[in-house]
Amino acid sequence: MWKTATETDIAEVAAAIGDPSRAKVLRALADGGALPAGALAAEAGVSLSTISGHLARLREAKLLTVEHDGRRRYYRLASTDVARALEELARIARPLPVRSLSDSVRAHALMRARLCYDHLAGQLGVALLAALVDGGVLDGSGGGYRITPAGLGVLGDFGIDAGEFSRRRPAIRYCVDWGEGRHHLAGALGAAVTRRLFELEWLRKGRARRVVHLTDAGRTGLHRTFGVPLDWDA
């Protein structure tokens, strides 16, 4: 029997995200990792008893999933679509007030280089995508991006077999970076490149959640491999 298509209930999802404590939970998980309730309570600045209600609400809205490890529960974003939605909301939202030097340092670090779920974002992520297009690894014509025949070879030399990507996830998607207002690379390719950067120790995670740092080897390697300018953050 055919089901009648209806408009989606945006208000329900917006209400789930709209609470400041729940928004902090979602931001804490925006790097694609999983955290227990206690860590999320600390991120949100609420008690354990309070965070349980917030987590239940986010699960009801299908924004979070839960994983069990023995008696412990770990929460993560339900999908890459949730991460993309958060990135888009960040583009139209007002910046949070900077109340301390540590807030300022973290905000600057997030703008430079961060994880957006499982792929690289920020100034470095934007610079990487631009270099992939300029270097002919990706074709950016026609309103989208595709891997070129030459690009398959470049990626293979880098350690990525693009032919092995699952059809269940698009090889290339892009997010409009909330800080730069330009595209950074997402999809299966974005995740694979980011994973490879960590394997090569060209990227390392920062002390603040989501923040990543480009190592000296990474700066040189990205320039030689993909043509990312050495002064990408200038």
From TrEMBL:
One Pfam assignment: HTH_20
Superkingdom, natural source: Bacteria
Domain HTH arsR-type: 2-97
InterPro entries cross-referenced by the UniProt entry: ArsR-like_HTH, HTH_ArsR_DNA-bd_dom, HTH_Metal-responsive_Reg, WH-like_DNA-bd_sf, WH_DNA-bd_sf
CDD domains listed in its UniProt record: HTH_ARSR
Listed GO biological process terms: response to cadmium ion; response to lead ion
SMART domains per record: HTH_ARSR
GO molecular function, one term: cadmium ion sensor activity
PANTHER family to which the protein is assigned, alphabetical: HTH-TYPE TRANSCRIPTIONAL REGULATOR CMTR, TRANSCRIPTIONAL REGULATOR-RELATED
Name used for this protein in its record: Transcriptional regulator
Species for this entry: [Actinomadura] parvosata subsp. kistnae
